[in-house]
Design brief:
- With 480 residues, this protein is an all-beta fold.
- The protein has three domains: 1-133 and 145-162, SH3 Domains (SH3 type barrels, Roll); 204-291, SH3 Domains (SH3 type barrels), CATH 2.30.30.40; 292-480, Glucose Permease (Domain IIA).
- Helix content is 3%, strand content 30%.
- The strands form six sheets. Strands 18, 19, 20, 21, 22, 23, 24, 25, 26 and 27 form a ten-stranded antiparallel beta sheet that branches. The protein has a six-stranded antiparallel beta sheet with strand order 8-7-4-1-9-10.
- A hairpin with a 2-residue loop joins β5 (55-56) and β6.
- The chain is globular and about 65 Å long.
Amino acid sequence: MAGQPLIATITGIATTPDVNVRSGPSRDFQAVFKSPKGTTGLRVIEVQIDAKGEALQGKIYQWFRVQFADGQNGWVRDDLLSVVGDGGVFGYGIFTAPAVPFYVVRTSAVNPSAAPAVSVQPQVVAQPVQVVAQPVQVVQPSPTVTVTTPTTLPTPTTSGVSTQVTVQSVQTPPTTSAAPQVVVAAPTMTPEVTVTVPAAVTVTVNTTGPAMAMGMNKGGGNLRPGPGSNNNPVITKINYRDSAAILEVKQGDGGDYFKWIKVNYQGKQGWVREDNVRLSGAFGAFGYGEDLYPCSAPDSWWVRDYDETGQNVGSHGVHYGWDHGGTVGMSIKAGPKGGFVTKAAVCQKCGPEGASTLEKGLTLGDTRIFSDQSWNGGYGHYVIVRYDNALLPATTQNFLNSKGWAGYHAFVMYAHLFQIIAQQGQTVTGGQEIGKMGNSGNSEAAHLHLEVRFGKDPNAAWPTMAQGKGLVTPAQLFLR
C-alpha cells in the first residue's frame, strides 16, 4: 500500500453519535462542525502534535487535518478515528489495515506543505513553571492562517493524496486585548517513563488488483444517483453475483446508518448500499478491513443487517446479527484461524428434522418462543465458537482497543442450523465445517443468523450483555 493516500474514518466513542471537527489541533480551538461516526473516505492532509500538549496516560495526542467530501477540512484527534494507507509522510508507517493511530508510535512529524518536523517524546514531565504576565499588542489574524507544528515540545499534561493540497482558512482561538504574554521556563527533564498502550497489529492483506463489489441481493441491488435511499430514480440493479469496480465510499445522506459504495457497473456509475454487495480485491483504501473474516456461508446471499435499535433496516424491528440466506444443508464454516466451540445447543422442539416454529403451528415472532428453552430462545439448533483475542484480525484488535476492550475474545453464534457438526468443547481448525444451514427455530426460510459478542472471560459460554456491552455488529469481525 506504499504510495496510496492515507484515508481516515471517524470512529468516535461509544457514548456519542458524532465527533467535533475543530479549527486547529487542540480542544482549545473552536468546533466548526460535527461529523457522525462512520464517516469514511477522508483524505489526511496534515498531522500535528496537540498544541496544548494534552495527553492520556503519558502519551500526547496527535491531531489529523482531514478533507471531507463537501470540500471542508478540519482537525480530529487521533483516538477518534482509524486510518489506512501510507502514513510515511506524516511520521507513521504503512497501515495495511485500518488502525487507531493513537495506539501507533509516530516516529517523526513530516507533513506535506507543513512546517519542519519536531521530535515527539511523550516521556517529558514538566515541573512547575514561572509565568510572567506582560501587556501585549493584539494582532488580528489574516484571513488565511497556516497552522504549523510548534518548534518546541508543548508541556504535557497528565489528563486522561493527491499531490497538491489546498490550505483553506483555519480559525484560530479568539484573543482579547487583555491577553497576557506567557513566558514559560524550560522544563526540567526527568528520567524516561515507559508507557504501555495497546499496539496496532500488522497483518498481511491483499493489496493487488482493483477493488470490486459483487452483488449479493437475490433480487438485485439498486444503483442510485447518490449515496442514499432517497436518491432517485434508480439507475439500474446490480445483478446477483455480478461484479463492479469500486470508485468511492461515503456515509449515506442524512445520517444514513449504512455506507454507500460508488461503482462502475456495465458502463454506468452509481451508488449501491454496502449490505447489497460483497467486497474483494484491494478495498482497504476505502475504509474496510481487508483482513476481516470471510463470510461463514460462502455460497449464501444477503438477507438482513444488524439493527440493535429496530430503526435502521426497515420495519423488521430489533435484530442482533446478520442473516445470510441459502438452502437447507449449505455448509457453515469456522473462521480462518480456527476457534473453540463453547456451546453446541440442540433445539428440543426443532427435532432432528430442524423444524421451524411455523412448521409447529406457531406465529413467527410469538413472544412465548423467546423465553422457551426447548426452542433455544428461538435460535433453533446453534453453535457458539470462541475466537481468541491473539488470533483476531488487526482491524478487530484496533476496534477493541478503541472501546477499552483490549484482550477481549470474540464469541460467534451460528444459529437456525439444520445440523450441528462441531461438538461442544471441540477445537476447530480454520475453515472447518461446523454446521449445516437450516430453518430451525423462529425462522421462515433457510438462513444463517450470525451474532457476535466480545467478552473478557474465555471460559464464558456466551458473554452476558450488561447494558448492551459486548454486543456489536458482525461488521467488526466479518466481511459480508
